[in-house]
Design a protein that fits this description.
Layout (H helix, E strand, L loop, with lengths): L1 E4 L4 H13 L6 E3 L10 H4 L9 E3 L5 E3 L1 H11 L10 H29 L12 H22 L12 H12 L12 H11 L9
Parallel strand pairs: 1-2
Antiparallel strand pairs: 1-3, 3-4
Helix pairs in contact: 1-3, 1-6, 4-5, 4-6, 5-7
Bound molecules: glutathione.
The site of glutathione (GSH) has 13 residues, from helix 1.
Length: 206
Amino acid sequence: MKLYMAPYAPNPRRVAMFLAEKGVSDIPIEVLDLPAGAHRTAEFRAKSPLSQVPTLELDNGTCLTESRAICTYLEGLYPEPNLMGRDATERAFLEMWDRRVELAFAMPLMMWVRHGHPGLAAIETRQSADVASFYEGGAKRMAVWLDQQLAGQPWIAGERFSIADITAAAGMDFAKMMKWRPEENTPHLKAWRERLAARPAGQVGP
Ligand SMILES: N[C@@H](CCC(=O)N[C@@H](CS)C(=O)NCC(=O)O)C(=O)O
């Protein structure tokens, strides 16, 4: 296996945090220089047709893209600690929370950074301040909603840590580029991120 990634980019970081929680550190990694366009070569597009990381190349040469699909595969290979659910009910509820935070929180945060930060101009060649502002608003509204959820439970999906926490944290940490982090108006979200910092996923840079 080989993992193609860019350590500062949120979706590859999601996989890196997942692996850290599993205690897996022996998968070979190739870091691609995204601003230099290393993921847009014909050679890499043959592995990842949308020119995106993370991409996990399996031993038979086939390639998995989509961070959640990669996590599903890794969960199968390294079942403990379980991060995606043990039975049908738990798997479904964890997926519900994971998709909620991915689509309504992490993705808007990423779009805000992509469209709002000059450092991302080489990757998002059609940056738009309006698009940045639209996603900023959506992400911040979701932060308040998540804060309310976390008032009554320690982790995003309930009583135990799961992939949903990793997904939310990967998106949230990327928004540090916009100098945004949960503060006094979202104290439960702030406390949740502090709890996560003490875990293996919290040790994953940059
Ligand atoms: N849905 C995909 C999104 C992957 C994605 O957007 N990756 C970004 C880095 S976080 C990327 O490769 N961007 C390259 C580009 O936009 O040119 C996943 O979860 O893996």
